[in-house]
Specification:
The structure is a single chain. 44% of the residues lie in helices and 13% in strands. It has 302 residues and is of the alpha/beta class. It has a nine-stranded parallel β-sheet. The longest helix is centred in the C-terminal third of the chain and has 21 residues, at 243-263. Bound molecules: flavin-adenine dinucleotide (FAD). The site of flavin-adenine dinucleotide has 23 residues, from strand 3, strand 4, helix 5 and helix 6. Residues 49-50, 78, 80, 105, 107-110, 128-130, 147, 153, 155-156, 162, 165, 168-169, 178, 180, 207 line the site of flavin-adenine dinucleotide. Keywords: FAD, Flavoprotein, Oxidoreductase. This is Methylenetetrahydrofolate reductase. It comes from Pseudonocardia alni (Amycolata alni). Pathway: One-carbon metabolism; tetrahydrofolate interconversion.
Length: 302
């Protein structure tokens, strides 16, 4: 199995996809339809998020394991420190290694229930993501990614301290970062400059959610802490209430954002695809990010 670092360290821009573990059989079928459709586009890696607790966590491990064994894809499991003792975290890391997973996205996670509620570490657990990075690195030859926040983590008072925390995760051994979703490039570019000015050159991959509906347009920024730019609100206002027209305009906005980021030299784009393939396929085709299919027009799944 290859590592994310090997897969993203290539001489042309890549794309990658993030999934969440399915809740039921229907969700599982939908996820696997998306995986099969995206697999032919050769994403650099695909990742699977880690839930707040209980059975969804086992599903993350099972899903990543199945991707590792049943597909040609490079897979990455997310892991959070929420409600886990250090021993339990070691156990999960061991299960991932046994399943052939070599890549882990190390996150602190949010308090269960209210994401902005008070964070309380497990009494025998970890406080911050940099400690999880270090634990994973000590546990085996894993390639580790971390989260980055172009507009600062919602709990951070200042962008400067937030950047220091990101740099601290690189210092602990993280090899790359993926950002929280955002809708305009400036915050991302400034974050990249601050990290470079601090002397770090690990890739920072923009995390982009295709704007396919009014709900994603409004919910995304609400959940992520990135601003909803006034110019975009104005640009998309005429399409409010018209699902198809909003989708077309939203996808145009997303395409332009990705084009700007690629022109600014980002190594690739990480798509929050919500377990669907159509919007990501359209963007990959528009941006020319499917190396093996260069020159051929890809068919867009129905
Ligand atoms: P940290 O880096 O630990 O930061 C948390 C807060 O503590 C920040 O305010 C930071 O500035 C501060 N801080 C960090 N280190 C220190 C320190 N040493 N001393 C003092 N303060 C410090 N959540 C999930 O539950 N499951 C997922 O699968 C998941 N995937 C994600 C993927 C991506 C790409 C992103 C961007 C987020 C994801 N999240 C996921 C959400 C994430 O868990 C939350 O945003 C969480 O609140 C922060 O996690 P972190 O790893 O950035 O934490």
């Amino acid at each position: 199995a290859s590592t994310v670092t090997e897969r993203i360290n290539v001489d042309r821009p890549f794309f990658a996809v993030e999934f969440f573990p399915p809740k039921d059989d229907r969700g599982e079928a939908e996820l696997w339809r998306a995986i099969r459709r995206l697999e032919v586009l050769d994403p650099a890696y695909v990742s699977v998020t880690y839930g707040a607790g209980g059975s969804s966590r086992d599903r993350t491990v099972r899903t990543v394991e199945r991707i590792a064994t049943d597909t040609t894809l490079c897979s990455m499991a997310h892991l959070t420190a929420v409600s886990h003792s250090t021993d339990e975290l070691r156990h999960v890391i061991g299960s991932l290694a046994a399943a052939g997973v070599r890549n882990i996205m190390a996150l602190r996670g949010d308090p269960p229930g209210d994401p902005l509620g008070e964070w309380v570490a497990h009494p025998d657990g970890l406080e911050y993501a940099d400690q999880l990075v270090a634990l994973i690195k000590r546990s085996g030859p894993f390639c580790v990614g971390v989260a980055a926040f172009p507009y600062g983590h919602p709990r951070s008072a200042e962008l400067e301290t937030d950047t220091e925390r990101l740099v601290g995760k690189f210092r602990a051994g993280a090899e790359f970062a993926v950002t929280q979703l955002f809708l305009e490039p400036d915050g991302f570019l400034r974050l990249r400059d601050r990290v470079a000015a601090a002397g770090f050159d690990q890739p920072i991959i923009p995390g982009i959610m295709p704007l396919t509906s009014e709900k994603t347009f409004h919910k995304g920024p609400e959940l992520s802490g990135s601003p909803l730019p006034a110019a975009l609100v104005e640009r998309l206002a005429p399409y409010s209430g018209d699902t198809a027209a909003f989708r077309a305009a939203g996808m145009e906005v997303t395409g332009e954002l990705c084009e700007r980021l690629l022109a600014e030299g980002v190594p690739g784009i990480h798509f929050y695809c919500l377990n669907r393939s159509t919007a990501t396929t359209e963007l990959v085709e528009r941006l020319g990010l499917a190396p093996r299919h260069e020159g051929t027009r890809l068919s867009t799944p129905a």
